[in-house]
Amino acid sequence: MAERESRIPRSGRGFCRLGCLSLDFQFTASGVSRQCRIRSISHAAFESSHRSAQSLKSEGPRVWDEEPFDSITFHTAIEYLKESKPRILFISFGETDDWAHAGNYAEYLNAARRVDGYIKTLWETLQAMPEYQNKTTLIFSPDHGRGPGLESWKRHGKEIPDSKYIWMAFLGPDTPALGKRTNVEAVSQNQIAATLSALLGESYGQSVPRAGQPIADVLRQIIRPPETR
Length: 229
Ligand SMILES: [Zn+2]
Fold this sequence. Notes:
- The chain is α+β, with helices and mostly antiparallel strands.
- It is built from 7 helices and 9 strands, in the order E-E-E-E-E-E-H-H-E-H-H-E-E-H-H-H.
- The protein has a single domain, classed as Alkaline Phosphatase, subunit A, CATH 3.40.720.
- Helices cover about 30% and strands about 15% of the residues.
């Protein structure tokens, strides 16, 4: 998610599935820096609510070496959101990927259903906070697709060509509500960072010239002339 106005300091943090990493977004005068610091979140950085989530993560049984369950990632992130009010928040959910690799379709569906609920909760939380209400965009996308067959759905990568297809969802005050769209000009994952930056009034292309361009349909209400609104 990204908050477009400037009352909140220009900072961000990511909550990722790889052991719950912290990722600070760096802004410069010329745009968003391509360099991000990644470090483990320490107990000292957390208030009591965060410490509870960290304890659950470190003390609970582990199915995967480096990844907590999505519930811990989500609730840690939502507490951080309420407490620190970052301008950008990145959350990475990993259970659907892990359960699919394990071939556990039932848990794959359960994980997807939980994430649906997390997105709803995140959006409702944002709309209940004056710092974010009606001026925050939610961007949601998988980082890769999966194979289409009874076996290949468990995998992705170069040997599974169909896994290159993904989808993206954008929800916010600068984006027209166009619903589910098909048969439109293809857009690519390498446009997401530029689109996020544009929503914040920054130019990602100035820092990363090879990156994709912002997605025009997402920004239509920003670039539309005022007299046509
Ligand atoms: Zn995977």
